[in-house]
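User: My instructor asked us to take a sequence, write out its structure as tokens, and then describe one feature of it. I'm not sure where to start. Here is the sequence I was given:
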Amino acid sequence: MSAGYYEEDYDAPPESIWQRINRWLWALLVLTVVAIVISAFLPELQKQRTERDQRERLHRLIEEQKTLHSINTRKIGWLQNDPEYLAIIARDRLNLMKEGETILLAPPEPESTPGLVPQPEGVPPGMRLKMKSGG
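Assistant: Let's start with the prediction itself. The structure tokens for your sequence are:
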């Protein structure tokens, strides 16, 4: 075997300035391409995030509307089929009362007060408490 065959015996020529510049230019080219790709997709990612937030907000609104629809459907059913409920609502709106009936009015509570007992489900907000007096 010859003495110049192995790498340890071989002295590489010194790297020229042009080779160093060439290597740096390739690195800059790769970084530039990566930056262009990121800047091309960044607005699309922001648009997707905005649309996802809007979709979640719309789903919450749909759920709220379904709840309101359910409550209003129940109220319509009561108005059509329950004469006692209809009488209570009519008396409440006209500030009337039956003979022997006592009306207790409570001031409206602020909605954000902690510790309040929630309104029973299906009872319209603001409905007055009514008690029959006598025996």
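For the description part of your assignment, you could build on this observation: The first strand starts at residue 101 and ends at 104. Try explaining in your own words what that tells you about the chain.
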